[in-house]
């Protein structure tokens, strides 16, 4: 018996190494469960803890867990001189009071006016409003950022549409820049060789953060809406503008092969001239969100099987008739009705409890419970009067640690 114990006993140094390794694994597991704001404060406790937050295993583990809980919401305030970013961490309870916190942008002096192009796996893409060459990739919690090199266009662009996303097969983040030129028009689908004065000429560039270069993909025969591209199945999606495409098409950009294509949209059975619709992502599926012309309803259609027209299903119909009135405050009801009538309701994401998060009137958040048919305002103290809201996964992720 003694000889068996002697053979199984490990050297003291190896035992200590195993214990240290076990303690490190336990520490990583515990720390990975912290919300991002606490995790950032954790970095400043001591050098050892700071080093732990730079461990790629923690970055990956925390991001994996963050993707499964309620997102942070990033707010960009509109200001005549200098715009700012704020954030709020949503709790699991809609009734909780949430506190808005300011984010210090390290490059704000060089880009006072900006747009939020998109959020992907803990990273934001920001672009300049007046300077089309100013594009940054930015982690708003670690303050790590990268300014992209200038993208050369054949002519001076008049309008720019951006997109930002990640494809797991290539493990690459990409920025898409579509520049539209003034006073130059064309139509590649025209049966005769004439110019179509409804569609400006465009030039598409794609930037890969892996190669750190822009590539020119040529022209695009669609005029896309200025809203951020919606990322689903490794593809970014936009709706075309009504003045150029009477059918309001859905156009995708595949981040794997850098190709555009049309995606079939549902049969709304309405005249889109009198309605508006936007895109969203719910449960990992592409969604179309239709605001009816009478200002009474928000229809949410879900494409259950990607790129299959027959898989579109009208999953939700949110409106006055589907609300349990006695469970709503008068303030919630008034904001909801006004936003529906003005067409300012945007579907943002699905929360952990199954509620759908809606952005109403530019920064006022409402959670809609599908089971209870109740609308509740997400109470946030310190909200600016006018802002843009973006769902965001708070993470330590950075380009050097693509996940």
From TrEMBL:
Transmembrane regions listed in the UniProt entry: none
Coiled coil residues, start to end: none
Span of domain F-box associated beta-propeller type: 81-384
All copies of domain F-box, residue ranges: 21-58
Gene3D superfamilies to which the protein is assigned, alphabetical: 1.20.1280.50
Database matches in Pfam families: F-box, FBA_3
Entry protein name: F-box protein At3g07870-like
Species whose genome carries this gene: Nicotiana sylvestris
Lineage: Eukaryota, Viridiplantae, Streptophyta, Embryophyta, Tracheophyta
């Amino acid at each position: 018996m003694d000889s068996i114990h002697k053979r199984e006993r490990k050297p003291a140094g190896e035992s200590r190494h195993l214990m240290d390794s076990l303690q490190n694994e336990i520490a990583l597991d515990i720390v990975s469960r912290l919300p991002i704001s606490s995790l950032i404060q954790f970095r400043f406790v001591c050098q050892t803890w700071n080093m732990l937050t730079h461990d790629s295993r923690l970055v990956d583990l925390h991001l994996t867990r963050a993707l499964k809980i309620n997102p942070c919401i990033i707010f960009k305030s509109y200001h005549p001189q200098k715009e700012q970013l704020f954030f709020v961490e949503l709790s699991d309870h809609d009734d909780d009071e949430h506190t808005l916190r300011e984010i210090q942008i390290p490059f704000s002096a060089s880009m006072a006016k900006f747009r939020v192009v998109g959020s992907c796996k803990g990273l934001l893409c920001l672009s300049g409003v007046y300077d089309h060459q100013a594009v940054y990739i930015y982690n708003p919690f670690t303050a790590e950022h990268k300014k992209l090199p200038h993208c050369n266009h054949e002519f001076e662009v008049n309008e720019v549409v951006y997109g930002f996303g990640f494809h797991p097969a290539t493990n690459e983040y990409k920025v898409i820049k579509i520049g539209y030129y003034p006073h130059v028009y064309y139509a590649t689908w025209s049966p005769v060789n004439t110019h179509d004065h409804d569609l400006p000429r465009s030039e598409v560039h794609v930037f890969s953060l892996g190669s750190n270069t822009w590539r020119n993909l040529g022209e695009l025969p669609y005029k896309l809406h200025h809203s951020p591209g919606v990322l689903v199945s490794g593809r970014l999606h936009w709706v075309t503008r009504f003045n150029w495409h009477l059918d309001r098409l859905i156009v995708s950009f595949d981040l794997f092969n850098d190709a555009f294509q049309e995606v079939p949209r549902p049969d709304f059975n309405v005249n889109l001239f009198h309605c508006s619709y936007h895109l969203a992502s719910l449960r990992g599926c592409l969604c179309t969100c239709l605001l009816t012309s009478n200002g009474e309803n928000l229809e949410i259609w879900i494409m259950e099987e990607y790129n299959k027209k027959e898989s579109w299903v009208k999953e939700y119909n949110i409106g006055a008739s589907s609300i349990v009135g006695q469970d709503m405050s008068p303030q919630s009801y008034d904001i909801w009705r006004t936003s529906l009538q003005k067409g300012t309701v945007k579907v943002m994401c699905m929360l952990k409890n199954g509620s759908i998060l809606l952005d109403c009137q530019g920064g006022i958040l409402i959670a809609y419970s599908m089971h209870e048919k109740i609308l509740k305002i997400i109470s946030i103290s310190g909200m600016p009067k006018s802002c843009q809201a973006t769902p965001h996964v708070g993470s330590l992720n950075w380009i050097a640690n693509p996940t």
